[in-house]
From TrEMBL, chain A:
Residues covered by the LUD domain: 87-195
The protein's name in its UniProt record: L-lactate dehydrogenase complex protein LldG
Lineage: Bacteria, Pseudomonadati, Bacteroidota, Sphingobacteriia, Sphingobacteriales
Lineage top rank: taxon: Bacteria
A family per Pfam: LUD_dom
Gene3D superfamilies hit by this protein: NagB/RpiA/CoA transferase-like
SUPFAM superfamilies on file: NagB/RpiA/CoA transferase-like
UniProtKB/TrEMBL annotation, chain B:
Alphabetic keyword roster: 4Fe-4S, Electron transport, Iron, Iron-sulfur, Metal-binding, Repeat, Transport
Superkingdom to which the source organism belongs: Bacteria
GO biological process, one term: lactate metabolic process
N-terminal signal peptide: none
Pfam families xrefs: Fer4_8, LUD_dom, LutB_C
PROSITE patterns the record matches: 4FE4S_FER_1, 4FE4S_FER_2
A GO term, aspect molecular function: 4 iron, 4 sulfur cluster binding
Domain 4Fe-4S ferredoxin-type residue range list: 297-319
UniProt source species: Mucilaginibacter gossypii
Name of the protein in question: L-lactate dehydrogenase complex protein LldF
Length: 197, 461
């Protein structure tokens, strides 16, 4: 059995035990909680996201209605945005059925100021493929839901139970052709972030 | 594709160097990526502490690897993931093929995995009649060009957009002469979307595997790993044994370092955590050794297993930038590849530890503080001792040692050299002298320091 062979070889060859480093210094050093929304906004915008500070769901609806033609397929995981197909109702559908989705709207309770990332789990998504297969993605987050860095982000989700989760920090992109940045590789061509005050 | 080659690094680098403007462009492009890395790193006052912490976590991993591997396996199984073990590349490839064959699958989509390049999985599956399509844009381009990737993060960094335009025109039907990166990327998007929607199997690599939770993390900017995995019935994830990290919270260190070091972005667009399979689908993990446990036993080289595959050492390396990734004739090119490859085959890769100036820039940018240039130096000693160094170099070194050990020979050699430079420059200024390639020979002084000193002393007395 290769399993036993590999484990025996590893055990025989690995060096003497070496302790894990203390992580608290890094956590404390980076835990600066001022202006998180404006820091997030700057970084996310630089990464190609569109960030809107909004006062309520009506404002979000207005922006979506301005940006998207009537009749396009929009799936929303938010109760408050009920004009669209509700993700909960289609979550058992085959992922391939979402190939024509124009916009997916999700919500999260965790955003990271240092890199523009938003934490989304399978539960927030309805179906895992929804934030990837849609032509555009929008995420709603509260203004108090930001942490400074990934160190604090993992403190929030350290014991979380999820089947799948992803930090998403912008639209899908590539720079594989001569290092020129192109937005819209395989996933969404845009990421809009609505920060609720 | 990545066929075994008998040519060594100097020969392959010389071929790359025939096109001087392209070398300059390659050099500048990679240096630009290195500069972006610097800007990102300097923005974090805690950068050095972050590197040190990452290095220590990885050292802890290496020292407890067998326990962590078992812990990871147990937790992954608890999560509903099926775990396989492969001692070498052949076993890995067979496991993947069996999984596909059992389900009658003949087409697979694959996201970036340097491990599968190392195992030559694509060639193997092709021989078994399985069609594999690489979904990372850069990898798709080199796949269509029938070449291996030349860089672990930027697979087609050696290609000009006009060449990519020609490849897309031939294979994907883009307009002839079209070379706009936006239009070419859109062409690939349409082509690969169709692939994602029709493949029942997806294979991905693994960036980090968490022992504590049994989950694994995949980082991409394009979203191709997620598109493939979420639309397939079976997701196969291939990982080397060294991808383990102890706890979920440690991702908070590595995800902060990885992309800043690689491209200067603060994080990739997607950092996806796979813990359990979706309803009605399967996740299989193949844990691969392929020489890693041997490297773990080499005290001086085991630190190379800390590598998180960011590519920073390549972008900064003056030799890599000017010789191109293909000149390393191995899956992982550049400085890190040159300390990993001799472990797999010391004879075949005996040239690689010499493909370095030992300037140390690689070690300075490495996010997990691998002593890369020290290891390159140490490999040279091992390779010479084991008798794998190039013959000409061995002879030259022996002649040099003999000359330096004898004052008479040394003086004679110096005098002869100066006479040759002065009266017969053609004897050294020719193609037979490798030093003369792309260099002017220096002007020889009239006398040696020894001679000058003796004369001066005589005059004073």
């Amino acid at each position: 059995m290769s399993r036993e062979k590999i484990l025996a070889a590893v055990k025989f060859n690995q060096p003497a035990a070496n302790p894990l480093p203390d992580m608290e210094v890094l956590n404390t050093l980076t835990d600066v909680r001022t202006d998180l929304v404006s820091k997030y906004k700057t970084i996310a915008t630089a990464g190609g996201s569109f960030v809107y500070e909004v006062s309520g769901f009506d404002e979000i609806k207005t922006i979506i209605n301005n940006e998207f033609k009537p009749g396009v397929k929009i799936i929303s995981a938010l109760n408050e945005l009920s004009d669209y197909i509700y993700a909960e109702n289609v979550k058992h559908e085959d992922g391939h059925n979402f190939a024509d989705v124009e916009l997916t709207v999700l919500s999260t309770k965790l955003g990271v100021a240092e890199n523009g990332a938003l934490w989304l789990t399978e539960k927030d998504m309805g179906s895992r493929v929804l934030p990837f297969i849609a032509q555009h993605l929008a995420v709603v987050i509260g203004k108090d839901d930001f942490v400074p860095t990934m160190a604090q982000a993992y403190k929030v989700i350290v014991d979380a139970d999820y089947g799948y989760g992803s930090f998403i920090s912008g639209p899908s992109k590539t720079a594989d052709i001569e290092q020129s940045l192109v937005i819209g590789a395989h996933g969404p061509r845009s990421l809009s972030v609505f920060i609720l005050s | 594709m990545s066929t075994a080659t008998t040519k060594d690094h100097p020969h392959l680098a010389a071929e790359f160097n025939r096109d001087e403007p392209r070398v300059n462009w390659h050099d500048e492009t990679l240096w630009w990526v290195r500069a972006k890395r610097d800007i990102a790193a300097h923005k974090l006052p805690e950068w050095e502490l972050l590197r040190e912490t990452a290095s220590q976590i990885k050292f802890n991993v290496l020292s407890n690897l067998s326990t962590y591997l078992e812990q990871f396996e147990a937790n992954a199984i608890k999560n509903g993931i099926i775990v396989h073990w492969a001692a070498d590349a052949a076993e890995h490839n067979q496991i993947v093929h069996n999984l596909l064959e059992q389900r009658g699958i003949t087409k697979m989509v694959k996201s970036k995995s340097m491990l599968t390049e190392e195992c030559h999985l694509n060639e193997y599956l092709k021989e078994q009649g399985i069609d594999v399509i690489d979904s990372d844009l850069g990898e798709r381009i080199v796949q269509l060009a029938n070449e291996p990737p030349s860089h672990i993060v930027l697979p087609c960094i050696h290609k000009k957009k006009e060449e990519i335009g020609d490849i897309f025109h031939e294979h994907l039907g883009s307009a002839k002469g079209e070379s706009d990166p936006k239009i070419l990327t859109e062409t690939a998007r349409q082509h690969l979307r169709e692939v994602f929607l029709t493949r029942r199997a997806a294979l991905t690599g693994v960036n980090f595997a968490v022992a504590e939770t049994g989950e694994f993390v995949i980082c991409t900017n394009e979203g191709n790993a997620d598109m493939g995995a979420h639309l397939a019935e079976i997701h196969i994830a291939s990982m080397g044994i060294e991808k383990i990290i102890p706890e979920r919270k440690h991702l908070g260190v590595f995800l902060r370092l990885l992309t800043r070091s690689a491209t200067g972005q603060p994080i990739t667009t997607y950092s996806s955590h796979f813990s359990k399979p979706q309803d009605g689908t399967e996740i299989h993990i193949v844990i691969v050794d392929n020489g890693r446990s041997i490297q773990l036993g080499r005290e001086e080289f085991r630190n190379s297993l800390k590598c998180i595959r960011c590519g920073a050492c390549m972008n900064t390396c003056p030799v890599y930038r000017k010789s191109g990734g293909h000149s390393y004739h191995t899956a992982v090119a550049g400085p890190i590849g040159s300390i990993l490859a001799p472990n797999l085959d010391m004879k075949k890769y005996a040239d690689l530890p010499f493909a370095s100036t030992l300037c140390g820039s690689c070690s300075n940018v490495c996010p997990v503080k691998i002593d890369i240039h020290d290891q390159l130096y140490k490999w040279r000693q091992v390779i010479v001792k084991e008798g794998y160094s190039p013959k000409a170099k061995t002879m030259a070194m022996k002649a040099m040692a003999l000359t330096l050990a004898s004052p008479t020979l040394y003086r004679m050699g110096g005098k002869t050299g100066r006479l040759v430079f002065k009266y017969a420059p053609f004897a050294v200024n020719n193609k037979l002298n490798p030093w003369y390639n792309q260099r002017e020979m220096p002007k020889a002084p009239d006398e040696s320091f020894g001679e000058w000193y003796a004369k001066r002393k005589g005059a004073k007395n």
